[in-house]
Design a protein that fits this description.
By secondary structure, the protein is an alpha+beta fold. About 30% of the residues lie in helices and about 25% in strands. The protein contains 21 helices and 28 strands. It has a seven-stranded mixed beta sheet with strand order 3-5-1-12-9-10-11, with helices on both faces. The longest helix has 27 residues.
């Protein structure tokens, strides 16, 4: 049987998903199902004077109406799952329905439960909520001003955490002071709306006889939801079942435990009937978490000949109105520790203030801290290169961590596992014939064309684990994973995994791992995930950890099954296990080709147990827990060529080259798909996307008419290449790939655009680099003339 590892197998999950046979949360239909709708605050900051629900309760078809007062003492505040050490982190309460005050537009104030969704929505209009508007604050810098209104009275100056990290302060300051060159910049990494294809939804069903509650929900981590839900509604964890069925994308926005999950569970218990809530797209813009939103004051220190001495970063991270589940770790641990990027930078200092504002809470969004850090270092490298009149490519080369220096300890305390950064850069440059490309650029510039070339050499921290590190950095859980491989008597295989794929393709890649290891056709392997009543404990899918951590647990379990099957086959064939090989789906004895047994025969023998080796247990299944000894560190180089239309300011992407290294590749087709999607999302931030609030906290970009998502027609054919540097710390040698494109593409494109504009004296522009913003800069600098 040919090996499947490294083979572009078509995704097993696609036929059901693309033919409309997927089973999403909103598809759940239960007898006597009720429908919930949430009344949300129209004010960013206000005191609730009163909420009159009498008319809503009287509406035919309405079963119940709940306010914050109704659930007080019955539904606990929504918890935060990351408490960053030595950051003076505050924990302001987050009620599932607002009590006394609302703190952002979209904050829930009441829930209607009715016989139909239409009636529930109509009833919302009958609720009379009286507010006393208060002054809101939406900008992080304004929020820390002495006169700023407080989002929470128990959080002074709105600073909910203050975290510092990096090199020894005195040594770093001395190095900074003696540097020959200092490049100061202020970057704004704008707020983004994740906009997963499927909005959030939850369905809860309660059995009063057994005291058991089942929650179907759009989650990236059903076991974490179960754990937190137990504490919030007071149902013992063994009585809770959480199911994440097919999930239509998440990008981090389905990591958190949300108020609505607690509310529908509470309502189902109170009413004795199942309750469903499905988010509208408008609600998704307001009430599902946002991403990014940092003000970055940064300095790169270096020598005149291109050697980086240090980097200093002072960050204001807008956290929104409440601390979401994993939010505190995003602008701190996941951001600050990876700030040196791919470079041997001896001195790095990071100062991060997490700031509360009257806006939608911030949470992880594809990349989660790594894009923000990569943007800083990759933009600074380009600005530094311009300052010392050196090609940005050469500055990168001069500062790369050498390939023979791994494992490499960074100045921020990480240990990079493996890498060959120069190789990915060289491959990207060769793909475009970089020297000739620069020559063509110069020729076209003389003809009046605004041509720009941008590069980015990135490294990211992912494969989140190990658990000891998780505890040390304040994550309130473990980061190991588990798997069960169960062979049935017929030789078919079920695999139960604790991770929760939702579009990444693990139903295929995991089946490839098992099929290869055990020696069965991939069609005989089914992956079961997302149901806490059926699968082993797991910590979820985020941080590109599913394959490095969950896949490793799976590989170890599969190997145990393969080893036992081989022992059983040897017993059946009356041979030593050392003399038995698996070939083309058959166990054979070396040198005796007629002595063979099928995998199905071995599986059946394991279950009939008529003739087992001495001491061997019946059955053919195994479980494994895997806690990684280190993170994994994918890396690569992206390169982009753009042309800017002088008359409109529009950016035309002429070429985009991506060279990524995610360790050993299980399925090249899935890897390329992940890279493509990530590139598009990252370029979306660079050129079009941005959540905009007015000074009253109203979201001006709260619909698809006002929030610009990229379209396929905006892009050329991506030129995707790979190198393979195995991860040394996990049994598969794999690293993550799901976030690399997003991490790399934003600075790559911004660098390209600014390279095109630099001859006109335009050195920096805020993202997104919309046609209007570029056109205005062209007008100011006389660049509108051809």
């Amino acid at each position: 049987m040919p090996t499947l590892f490294g083979t572009p197998v078509r995704r097993k999950e696609d036929p059901r998903l693309i033919t409309g046979h997927g089973n999403y949360t909103d598809d759940i239909r239960l007898p006597d199902l009720l429908y919930a709708a949430i009344l949300r605050s129209p004010y960013a900051h206000a005191r609730i004077r009163s909420i009159d629900v009498g008319k809503a309760r009287a509406l035919p078809g309405v079963v119940a109406v709940f306010t914050g007062a109704d659930i007080a003492g019955k539904v606990a505040p929504i918890p935060t799952g990351w408490i960053v050490p030595e950051a003076d982190q505050k924990l302001p309460p987050h009620p599932a329905l607002a009590q006394e005050k609302v703190r952002y537009v979209g904050d829930g104030v009441a829930m209607v439960v009715a016989e139909s969704r239409a009636v529930a929505e109509d009833a919302l209009e009958q609720i009379e909520a009286d507010y006393e508007p208060l002054t809101p604050v939406v900008d992080a810098e304004q929020a820390i001003a002495p006169s700023a209104p407080l989002v929470h009275e128990d959080v002074p100056n709105n600073v909910v955490l203050h975290w510092q990290a990096g090199s020894d302060v005195a040594t770093a300051q001395q190095a900074f002071a003696s540097a020959e060159v200092a490049v100061h910049r202020r970057f704004k990494n704008q707020r983004l709306v994740p906009n997963a294809m499927e909005p959030r939804a939850s369905v809860a069903q309660y059995n009063p006889g057994s005291g058991e509650l089942t929650l179907w929900t759009t989650s990236q981590n059903p076991h974490i939801v179960r754990l937190l839900l137990s504490g919030v509604i007071g149902v013992p964890e063994q009585k809770l079942r959480v199911v994440a069925p097919d999930v239509g994308g998440g990008f981090g926005s389905k990591i958190p435990f949300y108020p609505e999950e607690a509310l529908v569970s509470f309502a189902a218990m109170q009413l004795g009937r199942p309750v469903k809530w499905t988010e509208t797209r408008s609600e998704n813009f307001l009430a599902t978490t946002h991403g990014r939103d940092q003000i970055q004051d940064v300095v790169l220190y270096g020598t005149k000949d291109g050697k980086i001495v240090g980097v200093e970063a002072n960050i204001l991270a807008n956290m929104g109105a409440y601390l979401s589940t994993a939010a505190p770790g995003v602008p701190t641990i996941l951001f600050g520790l990876i700030l040196p990027g791919a470079y041997a930078i001896p001195h790095v200092r990071i100062d991060v203030k997490g700031v509360l504002t009257n806006t939608t809470p911030i949470e992880a969004y594809r990349g989660a801290g790594r894009p923000e850090a990569t943007f800083i270092i990759e933009r600074l490298v380009d600005e530094y290169a311009h300052e010392i009149d050196m090609d940005p490519v050469e500055v990168r080369r001069k500062n790369f961590i050498p390939a023979d220096a791994f494992p490499y300890n960074t100045s921020t305390g990480l240990t990079y596992d493996s890498g060959n950064y120069e190789l990915t850069l060289r491959k990207a440059l060769d793909a475009v014939d970089y020297t000739q490309l620069r020559q063509r650029q110069e020729k076209l510039r003389k003809q009046g064309h605004l041509i720009g070339i941008g590069t980015c050499s990135y490294v990211e921290i992912c494969g989140l684990g190990p658990s000891k590190v998780a505890g040390a950095v304040g994550f309130q859980g473990g980061l190991w994973e588990s798997a069960i491989v169960r062979v049935h008597p017929s030789g078919k295989v079920n695999v139960y995994v604790g991770v929760s794929p939702h579009g990444q393709g693990e139903e295929t890649t995991f089946a490839q791992i098992v099929a290869d290891t055990v020696g069965v056709p991939i069609e005989d392997v089914s992956i079961v995930h997302g149901d806490t009543a059926a699968i082993p404990m797991g910590w979820g899918t985020y941080g590109s950890r599913t394959t490095p951590v969950g896949g490793s647990a799976l590989a170890l379990a599969a190997q145990k099954v393969a080893d036992k099957a081989k022992r059983l086959a040897a017993h059946l064939l009356e041979a030593s296990p050392d003399d038995v090989v698996m070939q083309d789906g058959l166990f054979q004895v070396k040198g005796v080709p007629q002595a063979q047994a099928t995998f199905q025969q071995v599986a059946l023998a394991a279950y009939t147990a008529w003739d087992l080796p001495e001491g061997e247990e019946p059955g053919l299944e195994a479980s494994s827990f895997y806690d990684p000894p280190n993170f994994v560190y994918p890396f690569g180089t992206h390169l982009c060529v753009v042309e800017i239309d002088r008359e409109t300011g529009n950016v035309h992407i002429l070429r985009y080259v991506a060279v990524d290294d995610c360790g050993r590749v299980i399925n090249p087709m899935i890897v390329e798909g992940q890279v493509h999607g990530g590139i598009v999302q990252g370029i979306g931030q660079a050129l079009w996307e941005g959540a905009v609030y007015d000074d009253q906290g109203q979201l001006l970009s709260g619909s698809m008419m006002d929030y610009a998502l990229p379209k396929a027609s905006f892009f050329p054919r991506f030129e995707v290449y790979r190198t393979e540097t195995p991860a040394p710390f996990n049994p598969l040698g794999v690293k993550g790939i799901g976030e690399t494109g997003t991490i790399a593409s934003t600075p790559t494109v911004v660098n390209a655009v600014l390279d095109a504009l630099r001859p006109l004296g335009i050195e920096d522009l805020e993202m997104p680099l919309t046609p209007q913003r570029i056109w205005q800069a062209l007008q100011q600098h006389g660049g509108d003339r051809s």
